[in-house]
From TrEMBL, chains A, B, C, D:
Keyword Acyltransferase among record annotations: no
Domain spans labelled HTH tetR-type: 15-74
Organism annotation: Actinomadura soli
InterPro entries the record matches: Homeodomain-like_sf, HTH-type_TetR-like_transc_reg, HTH_TetR, Tet_transcr_reg_TetR-rel_C_sf, TetR_SbtR-like_C
SUPFAM superfamilies recorded: Homeodomain-like, Tetracyclin repressor-like, C-terminal domain
Record's protein name: Helix-turn-helix transcriptional regulator
Keywords associated with the record: DNA-binding, Transcription, Transcription regulation
Gene3D superfamilies with a match to the protein in the record: Tetracycline Repressor, domain 2
GO molecular function: DNA-binding transcription factor activity; transcription cis-regulatory region binding
DNA-binding region: 37-56
A Pfam family reported for this protein in Swiss-Prot or TrEMBL: TetR_C_43
DNA sequence: CATGAATGAGTGTTCATTCAT
DNA sequence: TATGAATGAACACTCATTCAT
């Protein structure tokens, strides 16, 4: 992520530009959807259109980089909860915060969906990072008796993606999450 | 749906063409997403591009017609289950079939999401048709003790949309539905 | 004008339709310019689009028919002044009224321009009707000493078209006509 | 005119292309009328269609640029005559040359008509440039006794537009101008 | 390396014209 | 004969991508 395709490390200013473009893309795509133009991203980033294409040779690669960055941030957050005191609270709290984010950032939902696909495909792609971290939270919550034992990480990812999608559209997320969480808890 | 905007009924051949276009649009948008071109729809329908625009004056109106048609079909199916013997089976079975459909037809998910929004907005739009029919199934399932009492139609719609989305992407639908359904069942 | 291209006289209702279309076209083109659609004309006339094309096989032919009708009306008015008492007043008054009409009806200007071209081309087309009638008014005004002798009908037509155009755009017609008329009067 | 909308000066090659497009547009619109297609302009200019739209974001803006360029050229010519020896000759000669140009370039007439409208609207738009320059020629011609005193610049503009229109259609310009000019001269 | 001008295939949409009903 | 549905070429305009500066 910090070096060009040629393998050579990027110069400091090039790296800075890459970051600026990525940040701009994240915001532009969040607000206008993924159909926003690359030109718009360049404008927001304060660089020329050519610079955008130098760092991300196609629009698709730019899109993917945005999703990857999002997933990495989520994975980092999940990893930070790895040794939280209350394992149930850690799991459900993380789940809730992700869904809340998705309610405003459409890209989050797309990232989750793609992460699920990637993880399934066992390609070792970035999505796996989140799924692995989430898997740890899940396992600890199961050991603590907060989550039923017959749930796997893939199912949690799918549920996360689905709830995030629903949150972005219908807006009924809070209430719905209640039921979804009850479905994950051990039957009394 | 069977008459032009002017109120006059369409000629038999015009009606046939309208249906052909709608069917083609449904398929094209399902496969290629809503960014598929109107030309593609015309080609698939075997009509000229002008014919598509005669029946649906903008691409947006064509898109909406597709969604409306989908929702109407779902609503009709739900209504047909209104007096099924096993109310729980009727409710959960319908839910399952919708999600299964969504796994292959991306448009179904979009229709559900939009239906949720419409219903929320309390407009007399089409989405309400499905939500109302679904509401009946829900109520009967609740009376039969198959679904917990504190769930409303809006929450069910949101859950339906979310699970449909997840089904289309992650593919883990069957297992995930198990948990979601458990969340809807009365706590023992 | 009262028979179809095949030479056979039109049925009464067909004739009525032709007139309706012509009237509608005149109004539509006056308001929206000649780029108005044929469909619009049909709508205004209360007939199907096919009927418009049956009577006027191309849009151009419809346009020309409108111009011809306008010119015929002007020619008729000019002919009515053929034996007016004050020949100068007849000539200048007619000129003034045409320009006033043109200020609101753009088609009048176009008709005059085309009439001028036609007359020049000596094709014996309709434009000549107006030019001939105007020629009579001119001659009588010259005999009465109200217009200088070295002016011909073609020049008057050109001046009429030019002033009509100016009237439609700049709006300064009244004042400008004063000078144009002075230019036509005999030098004292 | 020599810088983009963003205020930054254009690169040399961009400037060259802009000029090529403008020149091509001028010719294409002169020959085929303003309904000529933008593609045609691009083809004539030897650039891609995208280049045309980069410099002139809508067809209307291209059209306006053509008219503005024409008016500026005319205004410059008029200003060059500001201190000519024979003020009457300067005024009438300029008038004559404009009309002669209009006989072949339809766009000239449209430019004049629009200039008249602009000037009337008292906006600081380009049309005023020509009217002002023409006003100087007019005043000097009036002081020299070559033009009657009760004529204003607006009337001259209207007459200029009208005569230009007539010249483009009927072709009788020379003779007609004689009478129009006599109308502007002081009554003996 | 950064820039932004140039490119041109592709899009939604219109409209004169044809022809089956 | 009248109708209006069907047609498809044409249009203005967009945008991802390339490349000379």
């Amino acid at each position: 992520m910090t070096s060009s395709a040629s393998g050579r490390p990027l110069r400091a200013d090039a790296l800075r530009n890459r970051a600026k473009v990525l940040a701009a893309a994240e915001e532009v795509f969040a607000v206008q959807g993924t159909s926003a133009s690359t030109e718009e991203v360049a404008r927001k980033a304060g660089v020329g259109i050519g610079t955008v294409f130098r760092h991300f040779p196609t629009k698709e690669s730019l899109l993917e980089a945005v999703l990857v960055a999002l997933l990495e941030r989520l994975a980092a957050e999940a990893e930070g909860l790895r040794s939280a005191d209350d394992a149930g609270e850690a799991f459900f709290g993380f789940f809730t915060r992700v869904v809340a984010q998705a309610a405003t950032k459409r890209a989050v939902t797309e990232a989750l969906a793609e992460a699920g696909v990637d993880a399934r495909a066992a390609t070792g792609r970035t999505g796996t990072g989140l799924q692995a971290a989430l898997g740890v939270l899940l396992e600890r919550a199961q050991e603590a008796g907060a989550v039923r034992a017959d749930v796997g990480p893939a199912e949690v990812m799918a549920l996360l993606a689905g709830m995030s999608y629903a949150a972005g559209r219908a807006g009924a997320h809070e209430d719905v999450l209640t039921f979804a969480f009850d479905g994950l808890r051990p039957r009394p």
